[in-house]
Specification:
This protein has 292 residues and is of the alpha/beta class. It contains 8 helices and 14 strands. The two termini are 29 Å apart.
């Protein structure tokens, strides 16, 4: 069995993971993931009860019960680099014996549901709609450090030869969402491919005072298909979530509240209401379907 050293896997004196500050006994099988730490109580207020509240840096965790099942909500903060921390530590908490530091022979599969915000890059996907990410393509640098190897990953050769990638020689990787969770949330109006950017401004085609090296990035990606699929929206976490979950054996889906349409230049007049609506939709589906 693989052994993990004290510097590779850092464990706090109370037996909790280094960043999340959670112990193995506190991890439920189903976890909602949000970016904004302030959104955690916004989600957990709908639980039947909350038993655990833990805060460390941008990572806020509430664990409780919904419809007779344990459930949690954890904030990741912004970006794929934070997703790496959250998914690595959640997996370690359920699939590594933290006392012996050995990998467990039998692995646990977590059910992970991201509820986040996003911008549409198709005029046909309007502001104040909801979108399920069927798959995501990442433009962050995680693929330069990880060997993402899973049947749920997008074909790397096809990605390398993608017309958009040829024009913009940026490292890319891609992965699909959980088929089981796609079915659970099949009533969400829009489904499609998501692009995960490594930043909010120039990496998403915004221009403020700094000059962008890729001034046509947004229009080009919105007009380019991958394997016959248009890119529907752009955000900062989904591809990393999908790649880590697929490689580690967890079920993962990303649900997006579309607050902006980057093509029509519209922004939601009621962003908090849209996020609340997506939270309520997701929790209603979770509460009415017990985990298999």
């Amino acid at each position: 069995m693989t052994y993990f050293s004290e510097t590779d896997l850092i464990i706090n004196p109370d037996g909790s993971s280094y960043h999340l500050n959670l112990r193995p006994d506190q991890i439920p099988d189903r976890i909602i993931l949000v970016g904004d730490p302030e959104r955690v109580p916004f989600v957990s207020q709908y639980f039947d009860r909350v038993d655990t509240k833990i805060t460390k840096r941008e990572f806020v965790s509430h664990v409780g019960e919904l419809n007779g099942e344990r459930i949690g909500v954890i904030s990741s903060g912004i970006g794929a680099d934070n997703v790496e921390i959250v998914l690595t530590e959640l997996d370690a908490l359920v699939n590594i014996d933290l006392q012996t530091r050995h990998e467990k022979p039998s692995k646990k599969c977590l059910e992970l549901i991201r509820i986040g915000t996003s911008g549409s890059i198709q005029a046909s996907i309007p502001v104040d709609s909801y979108l399920l990410s069927t798959a995501a393509i990442g433009f962050d640098n995680l693929s330069q450090f990880y060997d993402f190897d899973s049947a749920l990953m997008l074909n790397q050769s096809a990605l390398d030869n993608w017309a958009f990638k040829v024009k913009y020689p940026i490292p890319v990787y891609g992965a699909q969402g959980s088929n089981h969770l796609k079915q659970l949330f099949s009533t969400i109006p829009f489904h499609g491919f998501t692009l995960t950017a490594p930043g909010f401004y120039a990496p998403q085609g915004r221009k403020i005072r700094m000059k962008s090296l890729l001034p046509n990035f947004l229009s080009d990606v919105s007009e380019t298909k991958f394997d016959g699929e248009i890119i529907c929206n752009i955000e900062m976490e989904t591809a990393a979530y999908y790649a880590f979950a697929a490689s580690l054996g967890h079920e993962m889906i990303s649900l997006n509240a579309i607050l902006a349409n980057r093509i029509t230049h519209e922004f939601s007049k009621n962003p908090e209401g849209q996020i609340r609506g997506l939270i309520e939709l997701a929790l209603d589906r979770i509460a009415s379907h017990n985990r298999p």
